[in-house]
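Chapter summary example: a protein plus flavin mononucleotide.
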Amino acid sequence: MVMVTYISGSIFNQTQFHYPTLTDNISLKILLFCFVFLFSSVTASYSGNTPIRNQSGLSIKETFNLYVKAVQNSNLEGLFTTVTDSDDFFFLTANGKLIDRKGYYDFHKEWFKERDWEMPVELLKVRQGNEYGYTNAIFHYRSKTPEGKTYLLDSYFTLIFHKENGMWKVVADVCTPIGRYLTDDGDEIRYDWQQVYLFDMIKKRRTVRKFKSNPVPREHILKILDAARYAPTAGNQQPWKFLVIQDKRKLSKLKDEAVQWYIESYKNEKQPNRKELENTGKAIKNKLNDILSAPVYIAVLVDSKAEYPEYVMYDGTLAAGYLMIEARSLGYGTGFFTTFFPEKNMKLFFGIPDRYKLICFTPIGIPEHWPDTPHKKSLEEIVVFESF
Ligand SMILES: Cc1cc2nc3c(=O)[nH]c(=O)nc-3n(C[C@H](O)[C@H](O)[C@H](O)COP(=O)(O)O)c2cc1C
């Protein structure tokens, strides 16, 4: 109010029509007072709430503090008293999405529904010009994940302010992410999103036994095998060969043969009657139909004539593990299949030289659905520090 009077007064005094007399002066002052009062009331009723009236004359820093407090308290109305009324307003999200004023409102309506989050803010810089200014700050968002971990998101926020009717208003809000972290419960160590991604891929790898027919691009096949060749090996001997099978006719023939291989071994081991044999044959056929439904298969082989032959099975198994995690990160399911694919038969079927040993036969494909994680033993069950 005081500031408005001063500004209006100085403008008025610049008029050059005549030098006012004393009575002129008194009536002018009354007139001026009425004008200022009317102006303030109109502004207040236009903005429609009390905080705005109190904000007139606030600096950018003070307006910024109101803005932050509103965000911290999930106060949508409070937030919007600091934001421009103009439709030119924009908000650039951390994902690079440009949102208008209405979208900003909806965004915060959703955001504020979340509970139990904190957002300490570090104000780094304030610049206040005549018409425009900006603040630069880091917002540290923290919340709990459903698994009980703490999720931390640090972002730079650049707010651009414009003076509207004598008040500073936020006209643009640009969010730039700095880092995302997770901490284990009660743990002080932060993990960044790349680390968390790797942990996730390892935990989300699954043995998949039924696939969609979507093709796997050659680039993906090579990427997966490229990861496999980085597995450790005894003396760095790298005794691997990866046989890639994509030919549908070959896979269909393998299916028929694998049913026979299984039935033969079943007959020898169990001596079943005709009915049992028929039922087992049907069940195995169905199982192999699913297991061999992927568009790509890789036979992981190791050379028994490598420098350290007693270690080639370890080397091959590690390569298979690497391959499976890389495939998972590209969205594919795999499987360390051995049972239906006996080494002797597979070597004959694919013409694999005798010196190679078969580690496993793994599919690569988009799962029909991702299976649930089977029971995994807890750390307490399997970890012993220092001694038993
Ligand atoms: C040495 C080894 C042999 C396996 N053989 C087969 C197999 O013949 N058929 C099969 O369906 N799964 C086979 N698996 C996959 C396991 O059944 C599977 O890894 C386990 O059930 C855990 O499930 P997950 O891989 O989804 O964590 C084998 C795994 C390993 C490590």
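Key point: Residues 21 and 28 are 10 Å apart (CA to CA).
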